[in-house]
TrEMBL record:
Protein name (record): Phosphoacetylglucosamine mutase
Active site (UniProt): 69 (phosphoserine intermediate)
Note accompanying the cofactor annotation: Binds 1 Mg(2+) ion per subunit.
Lineage of source species: Eukaryota, Viridiplantae, Streptophyta, Embryophyta, Tracheophyta
PANTHER family for this protein: PHOSPHOACETYLGLUCOSAMINE MUTASE
Amino acid sequence: MATSINQHQSILESASRFPLPQGLRFSYGTAGFRAEASVLASTVFRSGILAALRSLKTGAVIGLMITASHNPVNDNGVKIADPDGGMLTQQWEPFADALINFDVSCMCISWAIMLVVLKFVEEENIPLGGVNSSAEILLGRDTRPSGRALVEAAKQGISAVIGAVAIDMGILTTPQLHWMVRRRNKRMKASESDYFEQLAKSFRCLVDLVPKEMAKLVDAKFVVDGANGVGGEKLEQLKGMLTGLEVEVRNLGRKGDGILNENVGADYVQKEKVIPCGFGSDDMGIRCASLDGDADRLVYFRLLSANSRSVDLVDGDKILSLFAVFIKEQLDSLSKMTNDKLRNRLSSRLGVVQTAYANGASTHYLKQLGLEVVFTPTGVKYLHKKASEYDIGIYFEANGHGTILFSEDFISSLHDVEKELASCPDCESRNAALRLLAVNQLINQAVGDALSGLLLAEAILQYYGWSINRWSELYHDLPSKQLKVKVADRSAVVTANAETQVVKPSGLQELINAETDKYSHGRCFIRPSGTEDIIRVYAEASTQEAADSLAQAVEQHVKRLLTEKSF
Ligand code: G16
């Protein structure tokens, strides 16, 4: 078939321009491929082919984001958004790994990449080379200097697939790109200004439903650390459209501001529990928040004392708890409706999804509220999938990545109930329905989004009239410690049971158990990072000293066992 031959040539010719760096292997980790930017051209080029094939297969728009999120500025990476705006389906990850790692530098195997593609195309029945085949891929990038060249590599990968078109959306936050993909596939307005308008409008709607005396109790001043990344500038743009919120944005990544993610941003504040650069004793008593490099994570914090850099961290677990309390209260209002027919229409399953990193105190608190709490491995791809099984699924990782998902059936019932109650403008059930509808509009349904999460948190604080101190007091975190251990090969660690048990190397879990047993309220696990070349150690105990010492003891075991060649 002529088209097929053209197609083969197209991929072969362009693939030879992007040789795989010698001796390197890339793996599709927690959120796609990530590495030092200078070695990523071939990975990004091939991810372009991958995204085009995914678009052909699904007949829908796919997103390809060039970002390394919380990683240092010299890293970069690729995140791929599926038609619903979520992460690339896990079923395609093995193909992604195979495609990205095939070595075509040697002419004798240059056809091999074609074989990998063709085998997969046949297995998945992808209409590659078909006369009417068309594919559309939205491209976005964060503010990393390497982003522009990598977008060009992605474009070449996409155009190597005949019929595939790349649309370059420029600099975006990761959640904006995921939102756009989802909206385009639903044939809805999907530009950046549509995104800002939707956030501003739904935030306004929530704030309008706040009793005025409550809103007055919340300190208007609020400062956000933009991590010197893309999120700060986007928040600057959005803030002009917001009423009911005074926000100052720092660490915008402008000239003289500092380096992306270096001693700034959500990952730094959450892991180190200290204020980011650009914050100091003048911020004592002020509500502060941090975004990460691509604005898909959010944490809040407040300075503990004017002469220390330590913070009281309000992490993803507490954001989750705030959202859960609010959503549950709205559902409780709806359950008090006297109209049985309407009430029954809204009977819903509310579920909460966490990972092993969730502080034990948060899980205890959520369960005490009567909520169903389930666990998945780290990575929004797992949490998102689990949360979508509920009518309302709230998921958050402690690092601040999360959102609230609503089922279409539940939203449609809410609309019906709201219409039925239209003649009762002040009744609490109608207001509860309106609030939930506004939350569904505000909070990103595709992926965790720091900007939409921040607006929802602010609206809920106004609703309750809560300060950040009051929010932080919802429960007291068990002291915890996280460490990173550099090892030669992080894939030597294999875990099970939502990453709470080490399966390999053998014997390591027993050592962790023995250390953990020494501490009151001790809990500890390790796992290989899927975004950095390290093993992560998490420890929790009844005092900070105990948590630190447990983490350090386990770190030593990891170092020793992973440098021994015997396992
Ligand atoms: C990504 C994922 C998150 C995950 C994080 C850390 O975040 O989207 O779900 O929690 O990596 O992963 P790991 O511990 O495997 O390094 P981001 O914000 O870096 O894209």
